[in-house]
Amino acid sequence: VSAREDGTWLGDDSEPLEGFSWRGGSKRNTVGILLWSEPILTSLPSGEKVAVLLMDTQGTFDSKSTMRDCSTIFALSTLVSSVQIYNLPGGIIQEDHLQHLQVPKSSTLAKFLLTFTSELQLDSVLPLKEPCIDLQDAEDEKIYTHLGLFQIVPDQAKELSDLRRHILDSFETVSCFLMPDPGRNSKLDPVFIDNLKDLASSIFGAKNLKVKTINGQPMKARDLFTYFNTYMGIFNSNKIPSPTSIMK
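The chain above was modelled as a monomer; its predicted structure follows.
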């Protein structure tokens, strides 16, 4: 974010990557929700100063996470983010991927939102900002909008159209970005690097930065701790039921 003007944020090819710990393979590396310890201060085109916080979460809907774990991780990260990046391998959006995105409108989060807005006397925290669906290992090297699967058509089954309507009603916008395979060697593929730069610009560019709002008001840095405490208090109470399935 701070180096977007000179394009040096990727660093030298010979240097190891810095940032959140990660690794490939079947064993998960990240557990829970992590926030980068240093806020990145930058400016909007209006001159207004904003702080960008980077977040990483564990993968969801895996063999080690319960349904409640997945709902809690997804709900918390979505509620405090202005942009939620949802990584999908294989380069194709499938129907079950949309069901996962329905979590923000599931009974668990819907009841949570009602409880949260009531306790803090807010009008609403919906619609949430934006999920950016990152399709990994896509064969097409170009960026393109892959949102046809979100369309509601006349002959669609009610269950499928309701699913799409829930997603579109829950977020201000939904975007999609194709990312090619990063490469099999230690050196990143040049095509991947080019697309990565475009993706970063589409999210962190001064004109594209999205300020997090709650109840129509920009979130202040000092409010984040309060909201997190409130969120966790509600999640740890008996007011939120544990979901038994992704569609319930």
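Helices lie at 67-80, 95-101, 107-119, 158-170, 190-204, 221-235.
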